Amino acid sequence: MSSSGSLNPQSESFESRPTFYIGQHDSTRSEALSDDQYAQVLNSGVSPSAVSLRAPVLGRGGADQEQFRFVTAPITNRHFFDRVVKLHRDYLREREEWVQQRGLTASQQANPSLPGPVVPTLTDEDTSLFPSNYIGSLAAYASPWIDLCSPDPHVSSLSRQVLNLEAAYANFCGARTIIVPGPRQDDSSRGIAQYARAIREALNVANRANIIIHMPMYREPGLEEKAETLSTIFGPENGPEAGAKKEIDLFSAWDSWNTIRSMCNYSMRLFVGMLLDHLGPIQGGGRCFISAADLYTAIRIPRRVPEKALQERWFAEPLHYLTIGAETFQPNRAGHPSLSKHHQDMINRYMRLRNPPWLILCDVGPRPEELAVLPDPTAAEFPSLAEANQALRENRRPHMPSLNAHVGYMKHLERQQPPFSAMETPALMSFQDWLQPPLQPLADNLESATYEVFEGDPVKYDQYEKAITEAMIEWKDLKKPTSTATPENPSSPELVVTVAGAGRGPLVTRALRAAEKTGTPIQIWALEKNQDAFVYLLRKNRLEWNNQVTLVKTDMRGWEGPRLKGREDVIGKVDILITELLGSFGDNELSPECLDGIQRHIARPHGISIPHSYTAHLSPISTPRLFADLSSRVVSDPNAFETPWVVRLFAVDYVAQKVPGHPRFQQAWEFVHPVEVARADDFAAQHGKAAARYVTGGVGSMSGAGGTNEHNARHCHLTFVCPTRGVIHGLAGFFESVLYAPQAGAGKEPVEISILPDQIDRKSKDMISWFPIFFPLKVGFFRFPPSRDTKLDLQITLCRRARSTSRRTQNSRSACGGKQMTERCGTSGWWRYTPGLGPRRESRSARRISTAAARWPV
């Protein structure tokens, strides 16, 4: 009988949660598992209720019931290790013979061109890993005894040769994951560079396999790896104990990883896994179905979970695995294994990623002696009474390993996760850290499907309706005059409402609903330049709005104004102007320029614009995933780093810290509507409306234009406090908007919307109409505080420039560390974007960046 409740998929109250994909690793395993052993590991501890008594041994039970889903396997065995050690010893003996027999001097012995040891190809005695039908479910791991960072050139050369041989053979066998032990020390920049070069070679050798770099989260004293390496065998002074530091540097391991992936050119094949263990080399599992060679990392987390800043730093990396050792589990009151609350919180956090990491349990069984005794299928079907009774007490099938307590706890933890929220639907999670080209609604006519996506966000339109309702209520309370008033009827209550840029009409519907709710009579106009959407509006007006709406097909900037009903010969004014021109950076869809062209129709001084104001905000971020994605696009899209991208930022590290006077998210500038004094309107009134289109550029304004759009130029200089070292890959842009600011009644809250991470839940929870905008840096800006006790001030300058002659808007920005300029955003020069023409490269002397539409498309 199926259970009921939120954990039963067949129940109506079922709540979806992230799924744990669990693998098994044994650090003492020196041989790959046989087919029967592999099946025994997968089935170890499978609940009897999930397995048919007559099911085949391999692959029985549903995938969601299996305890282990994949297993690790060493590429080579002890025989190969002994052969490499003997090879190097023979080589050292041969060098001594050169001195004795050939009389080499000290300078001749130091000649780097002398031949070194060469590892011959593998033989069938060196490995027990062979192609099989389940090779894709095995995670091959390289020999933990190699030392790619060794200062001994012969040891590092042997290690590099071994890695290439193993990577090539695992790639041949069809393995999709290869684990490589990471650097054991971080203080040797030369050693880390050697390591990175070896990994680049391995990537070329294993061109169809993922490469996992095993790294600790940080170097915790007393919990270093104890594995025997070639360095400890042939030069104990070069082992991991040599030169060990007493002072803990939490970010030293991340520094090594950053060097490795930087030397690999931020390849899209760089990902991160995490090991929750404190000693012993770990070899993790891998994903399948990836055609190109990939480079990942596996991170070892000590028993004491580090501070939040380091957790967020690794979370921003391309996380791929969480690997948990037996020593990380702590017994609970009942004696069963469990994880600390800090470990649970970290796992729950990482499992919310679009591609959640897989879990690898290390040294938790089944034990090697259990695998040595294979079950007898006949005996399993006909157990003795004693065997059946013992299996019943241990909640397992006869002649099968006991239930794995560690796996059972992880399944329990899986069920205890918070269910997916409204913002974690599969559709929304698919947008995590996915770069989308910005929309250009002013230059392009959007498709119906794009409008439909926007209309699917009820939060935004609920806030708009609330703002319109508040405006109508206060209009009555303040006894404001209306634009429909005449000498014959000076107290006419009918408001003139205009929706500019109506799209498919969602704001029109909300305005009509607000008018009905407040009992306010209105004359409503809807403007739309998209001729295709205008057809849809005509149909909707006839079928849904009862022809209450006056539709006008026009660009709002060229609209002549409302012709009031009953007085068509008179062009009136607008009482409430409603628009939704906001972009991810507030003004980047040219809302200020568009509203400048229509605000002359707003009744003064009592006319209202919804939105009333909006602000742009910035914060520097570290986002290796997006930087790697952009780096891979440059070949086909040279403008990749010169385009502002729309992206639902998730796996990012907000590098700035909130301190007094310097928040993490800082305001760049603000726009307020309507503007009481408009230079363009004054010019048109003096010289005629048509004359404004032929204004020639001057030299006095900021952009060399005529100056009629100079009021929309903005400039800011922001200082962010960065407490830890790291890499800044770009700037994250957000916006907030006050849709309606109350004009009556003290203490009334304004109606607002926001996409700021620290404000969205308070002002517009679960709003999805806008994702943040990302301004990338072509070269990552590495920040390094001068000392451990000091913090780096990151200074960012951002300018918004506008040209009145071509309706062109540009942004320019720069990033500084302290007082010295270190990087210009975008490229070595700056760039700009012109709506309708697409991004284009500017000369370095131009040094301009522009904005683009920043909504998220379908």
Residue windows where pLDDT falls under 50 for at least 5 positions: 47-64, 278-293, 817-858
CATH domain class name of the largest domain = Alpha Beta
> Structurally, how many domains make up the residues?
3
Helix segment tally: 22
* Proportion in β-strands: 15-25%
Q: Could you walk me through the main structural features you see in this protein, from its secondary elements to its overall organization?
A:
The strands form 6 sheets. Strands 1-2-3-4-5-7-6-8-11 form a 9-stranded parallel β-barrel, surrounded by 6 helices. Strands 17, 18, 19, 20, 22, 23 and 24 form a 7-stranded antiparallel beta sheet that branches. 44% of the residues are buried. The chain contains 22 helices and 30 strands. α4 runs parallel beside α5, α5 (189-205) crosses α7 and α16 packs parallel to α17 (506-518). The model is unreliable at 47-64, 278-293 and 817-858 (pLDDT under 50). The chain folds into 3 domains: 74-370, TIM Barrel; 448-610, Rossmann fold, CATH 3.40.50.150; 614-854, Distorted Sandwich (Hnrnp arginine n-methyltransferase1). α1 (35-42) links the parallel β1 and β2. By secondary structure, the chain is α/β, with parallel strands linked by helices.
Can I get a quick summary?
The chain has 858 residues and is α/β, with parallel strands linked by helices.
Question: What's the topology here?
Answer:
Layout: E1 22-25, H1 35-42, E2 70-74, H2 78-102, H3 106-109, E3 138-141, H4 153-173, E4 177-181, H5 189-205, E5 210-216, H6 230-234, H7 252-263, E6 270-276, E7 294-301, H8 308-316, E8 319-325, E9 330-331, E10 337-338, H9 341-350, E11 358-362, H10 368-372, H11 377-381, H12 385-393, H13 405-415, H14 426-429, H15 448-455, H16 458-477, E12 495-500, H17 506-518, E13 522-528, H18 531-543, E14 549-553, E15 576-579, H19 591-598, E16 608-610, E17 613-622, H20 624-633, E18 645-646, E19 653-654, E20 666-672, H21 679-687, E21 714-722, E22 726-740, E23 751-754, H22 760-763, E24 773-783, E25 792-803, E26 808-817, E27 820-824, E28 832-834, E29 838-840, E30 849-850
Domain PRMT5 arginine-N-methyltransferase: 428-610
Family: Belongs to the class I-like SAM-binding methyltransferase superfamily.
Organism: Thermothielavioides terrestris (strain ATCC 38088 / NRRL 8126) (Thielavia terrestris)
